């Protein structure tokens, strides 16, 4: 059967295979093929693969189907919904018996999973964390790999969404060596770390002290600690210390980022790119954010919206969006 494959030179095969596996992009239903010095690695998402490989060659190729692994659905009378984060499976079940059955099936399957966690609350509080029920495993700490970066985090202590990996990579690809990048709500570093790996000098600020400790740990894990400053504070209290500093700003606090635009304008240098995240009704998903940015930045800055990007559907009739905005003094 013909499937999309990443075509890579054999000598680069293990590095590329490892990067694709870390990003969960390999299509495990098919075997990797080798021919004439080339590896053909079946991929589940050709566009994301091309982005990860910086325009790497994606071809259609006939490859053999792999002997099927046992999945949780094979062991249950239904197809369960779960999310993978490192070697953890995350589920959202109100029924304790159903949650227990899914956890047992996940562990008995061929998935490389050691921990199963069930959501026990909504995201709450200033630090945006939730409660978890530990159904299997030792604790709520996981190691997540994303586009060549490694993140240690405790899901019970910090906010983290693996669903935004492609969006984070979209932004990281815009970063150049020598830039000064400031993440106003940095968490454990999913923007800061890839920015620093591309040669940027980075500052990450977060109210959550646990997130800042993990940010420092992740900077060290990824060999970029010399380019990362991590600050446990309200960014509005820090902004004047970095006035006119930033070439790039990330504002990923979509429910209330507009409350921090005054600080963003203080941080922005003479020519600054702002990545502003928002959640709005589908009838006008970009307008409120653009109007708020213009009200805060003009006339001190010329404001140019370079990209209006829909990240994902957030709720019925609501969209999570990003505005890539250039601020020129």
UniProtKB/TrEMBL annotation:
GO molecular function, one term: tRNA methyltransferase activity
Domain SAM-dependent methyltransferase TRM5/TYW2-type residues, every copy: 82-329
GO process terms (BP): tRNA N1-guanine methylation
Record's keyword terms, sorted: Cytoplasm, Methyltransferase, S-adenosyl-L-methionine, Transferase, tRNA processing
Matching InterPro entries: MeTrfase_TRM5/TYW2 (IPR030382), SAM-dependent_MTases_sf (IPR029063), TRM5-TYW2-like_MTfase (IPR056743), TRM5/TYW2-like_N (IPR056744), Trm5a/b_N (IPR040601)
CC terms in the record's Gene Ontology section: cytoplasm
PANTHER family named among the record's database cross-references: TRNA (GUANINE(37)-N1)-METHYLTRANSFERASE, TRNA METHYLTRANSFERASE
Protein's UniProt name: Methyltransferase
Species of the source: Natrinema pellirubrum (strain DSM 15624 / CIP 106293 / JCM 10476 / NCIMB 786 / 157)
């Amino acid at each position: 059967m013909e499937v999309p494959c990443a075509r890579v030179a054999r000598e680069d095969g293990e590095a590329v295979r490892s990067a694709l596996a870390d990003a969960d992009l390999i299509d495990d239903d098919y075997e990797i093929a080798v021919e004439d010095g080339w590896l053909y690695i079946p991929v589940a998402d050709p566009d994301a693969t091309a982005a990860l490989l910086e325009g790497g060659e994606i071809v259609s190729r006939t490859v053999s189907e792999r002997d099927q692994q046992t999945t949780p659905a094979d062991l249950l009378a239904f197809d369960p919904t779960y999310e993978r984060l490192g070697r953890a499976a995350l589920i959202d079940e109100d029924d304790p018996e159903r949650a227990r059955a899914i956890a047992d099936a996940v562990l008995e399957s061929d998935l490389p999973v050691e921990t199963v966690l069930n959501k026990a609350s909504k995201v709450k509080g200033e630090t945006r964390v939730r409660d978890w029920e530990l159904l299997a495993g030792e604790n709520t700490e996981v190691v997540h790999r994303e586009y060549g970066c490694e993140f240690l985090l405790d899901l019970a202590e910090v906010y983290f969404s693996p669903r935004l990996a492609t969006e984070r990579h979209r932004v990281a690809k815009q970063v150049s060596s020598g830039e000064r990048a400031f993440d106003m709500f940095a968490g454990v570093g999913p923007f800061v770390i890839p920015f620093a790996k591309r040669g940027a000098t980075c500052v990450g600020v977060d109210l959550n002290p646990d997130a800042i400790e993990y940010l420092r740990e992740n900077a060290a894990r990824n060999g970029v600690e010399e380019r990362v400053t991590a600050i446990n504070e309200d960014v509005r209290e820090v902004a004047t210390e970095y006035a006119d500093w930033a070439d790039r700003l990330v504002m990923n606090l979509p429910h209330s980022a507009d409350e921090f635009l005054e600080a963003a304008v203080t941080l922005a240098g003479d020519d600054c790119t702002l990545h502003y995240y928002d959640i709005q009704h589908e009838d006008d998903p970009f307008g409120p954010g653009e109007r708020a940015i213009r009200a805060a930045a003009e006339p001190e800055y010329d404001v140019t919206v370079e990209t209006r990007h829909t990240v994902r559907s957030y709720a019925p009739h609501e969209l999570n969006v990003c505005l890539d905005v250039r601020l020129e003094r």
